[in-house]
Amino acid sequence: MRRKLVAGNWKMHGAFAQNAMLLDALRSGTASISNVDCAVCVPFPYLFQAQQKLSGSAVRWGAQDVHQMDKGAYTGEVSAAMLRDFGCSYVIVGHSERRAYYAESSHLVAEKFLAAQQAGIIPVLCVGETLEQREKGITEDIVAEQLDALIQLGGVQALRNAVVAYEPVWAIGTGKTATAAQAQAVHKFIRQRVASHDGQIATGLCILYGGSVKANNAAELFAMPDIDGGLIGGASLVADEFLAICRAGVRT
Ligand code: PGA
């Protein structure tokens, strides 16, 4: 059975004093949680704080974006090697907010994914459809295009030590979670699509669900056969809520 992963996405939230309390609470709260991987993806300026607070604990940390190039004249950008310097285990790529507000294409996201992986960081590839796309019945086409861009650029092997997060855009920050059955159907589609290239990689692939996951709906989602954990936005900013979601991963 695949091990569950619960990853927080703080988005553009945080402040030193408040982070310190949250990270301390996660450090101590996860000490008694076994068989679930827990992580937090924090804004770049707080990576050092996350590293200091979480080193030696069960909680891993990471970033929410990365540049596709190693280095160079790219003012304002952060490379994967820099994230490695701060001990990042994970980096989110292709979050729907990046795709929508910064016009990131699936090809660019695939480049970022591969840059992270080459630096030894586990990329978390976000995919998902908007409400309009779901209503048009093209959810699978959208998710396939987002996934295939990576497979075309990096080969299916790129998914060997990686995470995919299915996040329907209409469920993010809206309080409207996909039902466990809706999420499972897309997760199964993703796994089958990967399996059409390589069955072993598909079986081992960690596929997270994200979009209004809370302590009171996590267990039902995580109990589905192709849901391997969650990418948690709002609820990752509240220690008790996030820890409860991590514990839901133990029971499923
Ligand atoms: P949410 O965000 O849990 O607040 O819906 C999820 C995400 O955007 O990763």
**What's the gyration radius in Å?**
17 Å
Going by helix content, strand content and strand pairing, the class is: alpha/beta
Q: What is the H level of CATH, i.e. the homologous superfamily?
A: Aldolase class I
Residue ranges: pLDDT <50 for 5 or more in a row? none
Order of helices and strands: EHEHEHEHHEHHEHHEHEH
Keywords:
252 residues, alpha/beta, TIM Barrel, 8-stranded parallel barrel, 11 helices, 43% helix, binds 2-phosphoglycolic acid
What does this structure look like?
With 252 residues, this protein is of the alpha/beta class. The protein has one domain (4-250): Alpha-Beta Barrel (TIM Barrel). The chain has 11 helices and 8 strands. The chain has an 8-stranded parallel β-barrel with strand order 1-2-3-4-5-6-7-8, surrounded by 5 helices. Helix 10 links the parallel strand 7 and strand 8. Helix 1 (16-29) packs parallel to helix 2 (47-54) and helix 7 (139-154) packs parallel to helix 8 (180-195). The protein is globular, with a radius of gyration of 17 Å. The termini are close together. The mean pLDDT is 97. 2-phosphoglycolic acid is lined by residues 9, 167, 172-173, 210-213, 231-235.
Any chance you could write out the topology, listing elements then pairs?
Blueprint: E1 4-9, H1 16-29, E2 36-41, H2 47-54, E3 59-63, H3 80-85, E4 90-93, H4 96-101, H5 106-118, E5 122-127, H6 131-135, H7 139-154, E6 163-166, H8 180-195, H9 199-204, E7 206-210, H10 218-222, E8 229-232, H11 239-251
Parallel strand pairs: 1-2, 1-8, 2-3, 3-4, 4-5, 5-6, 6-7, 7-8
The structure holds 2-phosphoglycolic acid.
2-phosphoglycolic acid (PGA) binds near residues 167 and 211.
